[in-house]
Request: fold
Amino acid sequence: MDSIALWAQAGFWGFVAGAALLLGAGVGYYMAVPQRVIAAIMAFGSGVLISALSFDLMDEAFRQGGFNATAGGFLAGALVFTAANRALASFGAKHRKRSTGRQPAEGNGVALAVGALMDGIPESIVIGLSLLKGGAVSVVTVAAIFLSNIPEGLSSAAGMKQAGRSARYIFGIWGGIALASGAAALTGYTVFQDFSPAVIAATTAVAAGAILAMLVDTMIPEAFEEAHDFAGLITVAGFLAAFALSKLGG
Reply:
């Protein structure tokens, strides 16, 4: 894809990573996946993202902008996500990633969509930011987000189906998020290309903080509830897989 404009590459890879949500949603909606299997996939995806934000996002942010920009952005990302997540919870989006029927059928559809968007946008922005480093997308970052998006889509779609939501509703949300992911990656590249390394570092760290807060608030509880004692081991396996991918890719 070297001959394709970098802004187009950013949008393409953002959409590819976001399309994993549709893939997972298709599996969750059309297949009767056991709750323990869903939980195991969620745990694995959590480990993948923890590794990616540790070794790709935070390391790169620190290298570009130093400790202050990285730490400030990381805390800001977690604070913004937590505040927004608490607000959305009051409108019925608290259990948007749960597969165990906790999603209320009467929940606010707009809140669910906004919550899904809030979860996916930080991940996608860093795909665009990765192109600023040397004109090539971070394969590790794309792969990590893709792998973690599959269980997110799977679990959410399974829970939405149990709550009585239609296929049109479910796939409409995830299709829209996939398109928004492409747009967010495009934004990450085009908007930030003229900014200073410190601003880019802080933005990368903001995304990392939001992702970690999202994992602890939404994905890890789902994983532990069903996988129990095996959740930690499976999360470690996901972390190791992404760590190996990072080192092989580097």
